[in-house]
Write a structure and sequence with these properties.
The chain is an alpha+beta fold and 269 residues long. It has two domains: 123 residues, N-terminal domain of MutM-like DNA repair proteins; 124 residues, Helicase, Ruva Protein, domain 3, CATH 1.10.8. Helices cover 27% and strands 20% of the residues. The protein contains seven helices and ten strands. The strands form three sheets. A four-stranded antiparallel beta sheet has the order 1-6-7-5. The chain has a four-stranded antiparallel beta sheet with strand order 2-3-4-8, sandwiched between helices. Strands 9-10 form a two-stranded antiparallel sheet. Helix 4 packs across helix 7. The radius of gyration is 20 Å and the shape is globular.
Amino acid sequence: MPEWPEMEHYRKQLARMILNMPIRQVIVNRPKSLNVTEENFRQAVLGAAIRRVERRAKQLIFVLDTDKYLLLHLMLGGILFYGPEGERPNRSTQIELSFGDNRLYFIGLRLGYLHLFDRSGLEKELSGLGPDPFDAALSPDRFRSMLHGKKGTLKTTLTDQKWLAGIGNCYSDEICFAAGLLPTRGPGSLNQQEGQRLYTAMHGVLHEALAAGGYMEMPLFNGDKLTGSYNDLCKVYDRPGEPCVRCGQPIVFDKVSSRKCFYCTNCQT
């Protein structure tokens, strides 16, 4: 599932490609991916232009010049592609937005969605999310205080969107590895130094992953060499049995509260 780096990467790339161009055509192949009727969606979107592309947690927000908002959540298996019809991947699309010669293809939205909101509806929809990892108000002190009040494990804590929004299975493991902490640790058991390490690791891993275009494997557009580059840079995620890059011990695969989890039992404490 796309997480903070993937969605922030998509946001930055799309912001330079689709802003201020009117949407010339709307194709809906799966009405269940919408929260309104296909007719209402088409009436609201057709002819509108996207003024800004924003992100909140794992979701993208397309701000239309009609004061309407499209909220995208790719969920598990969702991806995006932008380009002309002749370059589209051989994948079924649920929604397509045409900007003239190029289209934005929403692919794999079997669990994901593209919902239409006004401002108040959007704020209500996002109201239950926790702070962004880079929220200006999320200081190291506040982060540590949030840890001390949280039950469960670091794995379940970092992936709890009501506690901290944007991190999922992949980056929770990568962050714990970078901090040298077992994802099975209780948040309240971390001392001040360990809490600071986790905070620093969170920012470092997410920045590194964003710079490498996240771990999504399919290019966003034809000729895109950046998207997905972080997949080869993961230290523990989906690396069961491979030698740890720090100590050489095999990476362990486990399940923590039904979530798959990867870590090194030797150099993570």
